[in-house]
Design goal:
The complex is a heterodimer of chains A (331) and B (286). Chain A has 331 residues and is mostly helical. Chain B has 286 residues and is mainly alpha-helical. In chain B, strands 1-2 form a two-stranded antiparallel ribbon. The chains are: A mainly alpha (331), B mainly alpha (286). At the A-B interface, α4, α5, α11 and α13 of A face α4, α9 and α11 of B.
Chain lengths: 331, 286
């Protein structure tokens, strides 16, 4: 239990550092961190499925899309969600993501492994197709521009205030998801990941467990979408396209699946590379591609798995040393 | 909406389906043999088109561009399978993620080498004419596409059904472990199939480049369509890929013509439904 509380302390410390340091930097870095935090909620929702339930989702952008489009359409068509009712939109976004996941889950949860990957891809493409083609509602290829951020006591058009709002939403999400995966429910999800048949034999309704996990992931995806819409100021089919789902999945793997916080690290690294490196060098995407490939080849447990690997290497080196010392004595 | 509309739309749908067959059949075979979803398949399509452009710019020969592009990309696929995918062993999720990593690399490489401009691959003049059948003008190039896909389909079918190699491939699709047990070199089969898939996708890129154009982003546009073909047809089944390609080609064309606002939805929703009811696709083997 000691190392667990140390880890929590480390995470809290790192987050506190972000909350203190980022607002004192320039607006470029503040926006970058805001984006990374908003997207990190989506990546963590992918991790709930991939890391804790063993379901690789390749259509998670759909839920971000629902939240984002809902926010944009309510704001531009009905002037709704630009005052205190912003928090209502947050609730709607969460419910919208959950509702979509409840529908999609009925289809997707039957499959597992690569088949789950493909069915979530197909479902994600359905949402993309609607966003791209349903001009009268979504603005088609051009998307929807949000002209202003909400104002209610707090003025969210102030980048630092907005950063803190996103940060707060992120922190609450992290806490909720952490509680979830540590709960008995989360434990049984991990059991399903390891060996579904055994869980079934033990009397667990594995379908229902996976279905609920899928809906919860969708709800957080919706929340991420609401925040993303106001962060980016524009919602377009780009947000629900296949590559966005791929990004979310790869960020989770890069940081380390099944760790939650790994997805956050992955999100920060990728957004950092993409938005910071791209201003310095033209070949930034090579770096991103190579980082992905090297991670998958050599670090299947992601960046969060590095300490564990070092420990194992040390332990095995230790064993080898002990064996050497013992060998002469034995002969 | 008279008869002409239906005939022309059907013809367009079938010719689009012919193109999708080239991309989808390779993807389907790769899935059948290796149980992985190759997310860099769209990149092979796009890179095939780009290599063909380079050949056309340097030699001026469209006919030469087809084999050169297809073989170059086949070699690329072969190298990728040997050097990166094979060492991962049987780990589909990591292999799939690896192919995405490569798709991003290829995207950037294509942007650097061929810039971000839109290009068209211009076929020889002889193929740009139209023929008139019963008062309907049919572009000759689309007829050529259908012919190519048919020819490729027949050759593939003969190779799969009548040769020893084909039998080994089918055995691997059905049960890789058993195939290995009776002495089939499944590692070589998967190398061969991966290269063949890349070859077919690149061929599709060259041929499709004439009417889709060649531009950045095309790779991830064609990929989900190829998936739809594979899923509707059934994974690892050549005949299924043909039927799937035809259905997707028609659904895409009629969807865009009849219900433009929900056209992609009418394509992907059935795909999701089929997957949910029968995960191996309509004609896939259990």
């Amino acid at each position: 239990m000691h190392s667990e509380s140390l880890k929590i302390l480390l995470v809290v410390g790192a987050l506190a550092a972000i909350a203190v340091v980022v607002p004192n930097t320039n607006s470029f870095l503040i926006l970058l961190a805001t984006r990374a935090l908003a997207f990190a909620i989506l990546v963590m929702s992918v991790d709930i499925l991939l890391g804790y339930t063993g379901l690789p989702s390749l259509g998670q952008a759909a839920y971000l899309g629902v939240g984002a489009y809902m926010t944009a359409i309510l704001a531009t068509k009905y002037q709704f969600g630009l005052g205190y009712d912003f928090w209502l939109v947050v609730v709607f976004g969460i419910l919208g993501g959950a509702a979509l996941a409840a529908v999609f889950g009925l289809l997707a949860i039957r499959a597992s492994g690569v088949y789950f990957l493909m069915i979530t891809l197909a479902l994600g493409q359905c949402v993309w197709g609607l966003a791209y083609r349903w001009n009268s509602l979504t603005g088609g290829d051009n998307g929807i521009n949000l002209r202003e951020r909400p104002k209610f006591g707090l003025d969210l058009s102030n980048e630092v205030t907005f950063f803190y709002v996103v940060f707060a939403c992120f922190a609450v999400s992290l806490l909720l998801m952490y509680t979830l995966v540590r709960s008995p429910f989360g434990r049984s999800l991990a059991g399903i990941r390891e060996r579904e048949l055994r869980m079934k034999i033990l009397g667990y309704n594995t379908w229902l467990h996976k279905y609920i996990a899928f809906i919860i992931a969708g709800a957080f995806g919706g929340l991420s979408g609401v925040l993303w819409a106001h962060t980016a100021g524009i919602v377009s089919p780009e947000n629900v396209v296949l590559t966005t789902s791929v990004d979310a999945l790869l960020m989770a793997v890069l940081g380390g699946a099944g760790t939650l916080i790994g997805g956050v690290i992955g999100s920060f690294i990728v957004f950092g590379l993409r938005e910071y490196l791209s201003t310095i060098v033209p070949w930034w995407q090579y770096v991103l591609g190579i980082v992905y490939i090297l991670t998958i080849l050599y670090l299947p447990t992601g960046l969060m798995g590095i300490p564990e690997r070092i420990r194992q290497r040390r332990a095995s080196a230790q064993r080898r040393n002990d064996a050497k010392k013992l060998a002469p004595a034995a002969s | 909406m008279n008869w002409n509309f239906w005939i022309i739309q059907t013809f367009n749908g079938v010719s689009y389906g012919a193109l999708l067959f080239l991309v989808g059949s390779g993807l389907s075979l790769i899935f059948g043999v290796m149980r992985i979803v190759n997310l860099s398949h769209g990149s092979y399509f796009l890179l095939g088109g780009y290599v063909a452009l380079t050949v056309i710019w340097t030699t001026g020969s469209w006919l030469l561009a087809i084999p050169v592009a297809a073989l170059t990309i086949a070699l690329l696929g072969l190298a990728m399978e040997r050097v990166f995918l094979r060492p991962l062993g049987f780990d589909p999720l990591r292999q799939v993620l690896l192919t995405v990593g490569f798709a991003f690399l290829f995207q950037q490489a294509a942007l650097d080498i061929w810039t971000g401009n839109n290009f068209d691959i211009n076929p020889p003049d002889a193929l740009t004419k139209s023929i008139v059948v019963g008062g309907v003008y049919l572009p000759l190039y689309r007829v050529f596409m259908i012919g190519t896909a048919l020819a490729i389909g027949v050759v593939l079918w003969l190779a799969m059904e009548k040769t020893r190699m084909g039998a080994a491939v089918r055995a691997t699709v059905d049960d890789a472990q058993m195939a290995r047990g009776v002495g089939v070199d499944t590692s070589r089969i998967s190398m061969f199939i991966f290269a063949l898939g890349a070859f077919l996708a690149a061929l599709g890129g060259v041929i499709g480049g004439a009417f889709l154009g060649i531009y950045p982003g095309l790779d991830f546009e064609i990929l989900p369509l190829a998936f739809a073909v594979v899923i509707i047809g059934g994974m690892g089944s050549l005949g299924g890929a043909a039927i799937g390609a035809l259905l997707v080609g028609l659904a895409d064309n009629f969807g865009k013509a009849l219900f433009p606002e929900i056209s992609y939805f009418t394509l992907y929703a059935p795909m999701a439904l089929i997957l949910a009811v029968k995960p191996t696709g309509l004609f896939g083997r259990e």
